[in-house]
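Chapter review: from sequence to fold.
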Amino acid sequence: MHTKVVQRAARLLSDRLGLAALRFNFRGVGSSAGVSSGGAGETEDLVAASRWLRERYPGGPFVLGGFSFGSVAALHASSVLLPDVLLLIGLPTRRYRSVPAAPAGARVFWIQGELDEYSRATKARGLAEARGWELVVIPEADHLFTGRLDAFEAAAEEGLRHALEERLA
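The token string follows.
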């Protein structure tokens, strides 16, 4: 929740795109209650948090996103929440034997660092192409986009604006 990538993504969604944005820790992370369940419970957390936010801010497009493990949870939750755009950041393809699919027809925008320790850019490109997902690889960026946060933010803004325009047209 406190990584610069997550902070910048939330600020982009709220300040530049005018959307309500919510950052939270999954169960057992930071000072949150509970114990990590390895995926299922965290997906429930994301669904509950997203529903809570949509009840308070029902208008406008719905972007469901996550960073690293959060992107895996977002993929799992997308079949229940059906967002307008699914934003994946730093999807850790090396940590999972298979990456969950998005619902049929879902608009997926994925940002990955070229030098991400948890996902090779070549694997990301192959997966994105096979699934019809839009992928932007940030050159020379690691998993946390160290020293490349401005490039991350610029690509995220451009890609999200395009994805939202296309999805809502």
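Two observations follow directly from the output. The mean pLDDT is 90. DSSP finds five helices and four strands in the chain.
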